[in-house]
């Protein structure tokens, strides 16, 4: 009887290592909120990118060390809501949208609500959705679009109030992309444990060098291109674009997969 009670107590514990990364990401997101309130917009934008790094590490560390847990998954989602939902929305509002009045905070709310809905939908589709693609723009990538834009604008001494309408439009569209049905590459099919040739390592080094030269510009352009890639992939995949391919409950995934299957079979039939 005593052994079973001790076993129950042990099972109530949480794994330290992956949750440390999640906590670091949560701290970065919270710091971004505080920094934006103090008009330190560049530090706030950088903090969101730091939260992205921590968010990318916690899941991989958990899988590598076999320390996955339901607690870790829920904690990660709540931390993501702060780092990639609230923090970018408040950063955009404090930088450019405050002078727009109701329109400004409504644009920020659209983004925040989009992030919450995106995370909720992702949690309900774990183990069901196609792992090769994300349905809708992932919240870290959406946060990178907002943070990268503000980081770049701050480096070029651009006053957000002068482009408040453009900033509001970008914020609202980014929020809508998160709840859209556009398909984005997840890059989960890449085998990170596998061996690669020397050229691949040189390419990775080159990427780090390029990003370090102008991090704000390169990251901003990169994530804008990724945000645009979803509509491009979806439009190229389907033969006839419908409203259900843009918004809906995800039933269009079968049509998209069927379209890809027919396309691949047609291509294979054309080969000699």
Q: Give the CA-based shape.
A: globular
Q: Structural class of the helix and strand makeup?
A: mainly alpha
Total number of helical segments? 10
Portion of residues in helices? over 70%
Number of distinct beta strands: 2
Instruction: Tell me the distance between the termini.
Output: 70 Å
State the strand order across the main sheet: 1-2
**Backbone CA Rg:** 21 Å
- Low-confidence segments: 4-10, 262-272
**Largest sheet, if any?**
2 strands, antiparallel
Order of helices and strands: HHHHHEHHEHHH
In short:
This protein has helices spanning 2-11, 16-37, 41-64, 70-97, 102-124, 139-155, 164-178, 198-213, 215-237, 252-270, and strands at residues 133-135, 183-185.
What does this structure look like?
The chain has 272 residues and is an all-alpha fold. Helices cover 72% and strands 2% of the residues. Strands 1-2 form a two-stranded antiparallel ribbon. α4 runs antiparallel to α7, α6 packs antiparallel against α7 and α6 crosses α9. It is globular, with a radius of gyration of 21 Å. The C terminus is likely disordered.
Descriptive key words:
about 270 residues; 2 strands; transferase; two-stranded antiparallel ribbon; transmembrane helix; mainly alpha; single chain; lipid metabolism; disordered C terminus; EC 2.7.8.8
């Amino acid at each position: 009887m005593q052994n079973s009670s001790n076993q129950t107590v042990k099972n109530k514990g949480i794994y330290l290592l992956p949750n440390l990364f999640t906590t670091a990401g949560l701290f970065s997101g919270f710091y971004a909120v505080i920094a934006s309130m103090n008009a330190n917009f560049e530090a706030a934008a950088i903090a969101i990118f730091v939260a992205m790094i921590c968010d990318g590490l916690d899941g991989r560390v958990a899988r590598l060390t076999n320390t996955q847990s339901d607690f870790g998954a829920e904690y990660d989602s709540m931390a993501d809501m702060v780092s990639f939902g609230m923090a970018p929305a408040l950063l955009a509002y404090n930088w450019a949208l405050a002078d727009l009045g109701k329109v400004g905070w409504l644009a920020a709310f659209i983004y925040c609500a989009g992030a919450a809905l995106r995370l909720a939908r992702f949690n309900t589709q774990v183990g069901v959705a196609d792992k090769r693609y994300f349905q809708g723009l992932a919240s870290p990538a959406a946060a990178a679009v907002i943070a990268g834009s503000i980081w770049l604008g701050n480096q070029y001494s651009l006053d957000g109030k002068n482009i408040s309408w453009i900033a509001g439009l970008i914020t609202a569209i980014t929020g809508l992309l998160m709840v859209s049905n556009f398909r984005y590459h997840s890059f989960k099919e890449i085998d990170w444990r596998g061996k690669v040739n020397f050229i691949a390592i040189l390419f990775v080094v080159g990427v780090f060098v390029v990003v370090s030269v102008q991090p704000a510009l390169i990251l901003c352009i990169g994530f804008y291109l990724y945000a645009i890639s979803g509509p491009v992939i979806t439009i190229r995949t389907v033969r006839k674009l419908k409203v259900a391919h843009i918004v809906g409950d995800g039933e269009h995934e079968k049509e998209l997969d069927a379209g890809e299957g027919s396309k691949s079979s047609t291509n294979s039939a054309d080969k000699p």
